[in-house]
Design brief:
- It is a single chain.
- It is built from nine helices and no strands.
- It folds into two domains: about 70 residues; about 80 residues, HscB, C-terminal domain (Monooxygenase).
- With about 180 residues, it is mostly helical.
């Protein structure tokens, strides 16, 4: 099948020559996703297989979907870190492992109290302050994940991903609080 000959570039695509690299900036990500990967993606685009057999069309659609999923994973720092953990044999155990450092748990409690106060008082300034704290915490958490990833400590990366997931989910709660105040 001619499509199979075109796919090795997609299968072997890594973020860099060092598979544990964790680029953190958008320009770095875009640079990693450009040729040869862009060329490979265009080779498997379903539009290139309009006159192909049904089987080739189906395979082209599957590889195009995989390519798009790979890009979404590469683009999202949390998904990228999760994927690198999986590649390195570390299960995140998100459902069963909710243990976090005491300092982080205390921070969560403070944030929840501030959110509760902001909701009760319909205090947009307090929500702004809380949103700023969350942005700073997310940035710091991503830097920590990058450091652990680059040093090959994927158990620490997994812990960092779980913390990042909380920060992002709590950020959604803050956005909902903004919406409630504005309504």
């Amino acid at each position: 099948m001619r499509l199979r000959r075109k796919l090795p570039h997609l299968i072997s695509c890594r973020t860099t020559s060092n598979s544990s690299s964790f680029p953190s900036s958008s320009p770095s990500i875009r640079a990693l996703w450009t040729p040869p990967t862009a060329k490979s993606r265009s080779r498997v685009h379903p539009d290139k297989f309009v006159n192909a057999t049904d089987a080739e069309k189906r395979v082209a659609m599957q590889w195009s979907t995989r390519s798009n999923e790979a890009y979404q994973t590469l683009k999202n720092p949390q998904k990228r870190a999760q994927y690198l953990c999986e590649l390195n044999g570390v299960d995140l155990k998100m459902e069963s492992n909710t243990a976090m450092p005491m300092e982080f748990l205390m921070q969560q409690m403070e944030w929840r109290e501030e959110l509760s106060e902001a909701r009760a008082g319909k205090d947009g300034d307090l929500l702004d302050k809380l949103d700023g704290q969350l942005r700073a915490a997310r940035k710091a958490q991503l830097a920590e994940i990058e450091q652990h990833c680059n040093s090959g400590d994927y158990h620490a990366v997994a812990q960092g991903v779980r913390a990042l997931m909380f920060i992002e989910k709590f950020g959604e709660e803050v956005r909902f609080a903004y919406d409630a105040i504005e309504a």
